[in-house]
Amino acid sequence: MPGTSHEVRLVVRPEGLPEPDHFAVVEVPMPVPGDGEVLVRNRFFHVFPALRTLIGGSVPGAPFPGLRPGDTLYGKAIGEVVSAPSDAGVRPGDLVEHWFGWREYAAVPAGQCSPLDGTLPDPAAHLGQAAIAYTALTRDARLRPGDTVFVSGGAGGIGSLAGQFARALGAGRVIGSTGSPDKAKRLVAELGYDAAILRGTGGRIADQLAEAAPDGIDVLVDNVGGEQLRAAIAAARPGARFALVGALAGQLSPDLAGGTAPVEIDTFQVILKGIEIRGFGGSTGPAANREWAERFGGWLRSGKVTFPHVRVAGIGNAPPALHEMIGGRHLGTVIVEL
Ligand SMILES: NC(=O)c1ccc[n+]([C@@H]2O[C@H](COP(=O)([O-])OP(=O)(O)OC[C@H]3O[C@@H](n4cnc5c(N)ncnc54)[C@H](OP(=O)(O)O)[C@@H]3O)[C@@H](O)[C@H]2O)c1
């Protein structure tokens, strides 16, 4: 066992988007687990956009505390148990999921460690956003066979799975948005999308969506908000169901603080079309949790879906990985592998 560990800390709260030099990778003494704590050697952790929100101070009502200069970043991680109290329910060598990412070793309260049960073929896939994508489609938007589905942020951690899941669940047509022409091609070639639309340089989103879905959309999985939500309302068919999951247009804008993506929406259209707009409701208990994991695991094993992700090696590369994720460099979930 080494005597020290490394972790990533916020050095300064940035004006605008975070850059790698707003963070420091520091050497700290090896954590000593207290009563009821498990010592975990992290193997993977998730690089995710809500960190921008946390760095901006978080948003009212969010379950996660904001980050201040000097704080160690946190987020979902997969690690191997090094030592555990005898009643912790895990043993040395077990793989567990927890929220003490962005560090090599963590002392984690036993109640906050979930052992991996092998339902997913690759431990790293537990850092994928399958629970969100599956729940948004099946519980919030209640996808029906034949539906036309629009996934905003279609190439991201959630979107790269939501598009594939929509297809696997019987959608008739699936459209995704992304920020790069290269990823737009990959959405269609690799992830089963029928069409991709481009934010930023591709012309008005509403026009692109009208062209990609000439008969309108039934379902929206909205990771972006802002202009893309407004365009989805314009394109909605009567009785369309919208699951609002994220707010990337606000979160990752250099001009905003990491919170919402302000937009004016046409409420007459919402009323006239009877559009149902639901905030993501989260997973609803052990049965629902088993369901997404078994479906995702089964689809991965059969090859029906893939887990699009990028692995970045070493904690020293974690701050650049965050910068690249925000800049849209990668497709799928971004993971640091230790
Ligand atoms: N409700 C919940 O419980 C819950 C849980 C998890 C995540 N979320 C939220 O869901 C959303 C998606 O999460 P994710 O993990 O799948 O993120 P993600 O899509 O992987 O986020 C990174 C991507 O955001 C896109 N992006 C960058 N700047 C943008 C901008 N200004 N406008 C729009 N898109 C931009 C880029 O993709 P392109 O280049 O392809 O556009 C980039 O690759 C986030 O808002 C996240 O916080 C919610």
UniProtKB/TrEMBL annotation:
SUPFAM superfamilies: GroES-like (SSF50129), NAD(P)-binding Rossmann-fold domains (SSF51735). PANTHER family: PROSTAGLANDIN REDUCTASE, PROSTAGLANDIN REDUCTASE 1. It holds the Pfam family ADH_zinc_N. Residues 16-336 form the Enoyl reductase (ER) domain. InterPro entries: ADH-like_C, ADH_N_2, ER, GroES-like_sf, MDR_fam, NAD(P)-bd_dom_sf. It comes from Actinomadura spongiicola. GO terms for molecular function: oxidoreductase activity, acting on the CH-CH group of donors, NAD or NADP as acceptor. The keyword Oxidoreductase applies. The keyword Oxidoreductase applies. Transmembrane segments: none annotated. This is NADP-dependent oxidoreductase. The lineage of its organism: Bacteria, Bacillati, Actinomycetota, Actinomycetes, Streptosporangiales. Gene3D superfamilies: Medium-chain alcohol dehydrogenases, catalytic domain (3.90.180.10), NAD(P)-binding Rossmann-like Domain (3.40.50.720). Keywords: Oxidoreductase.
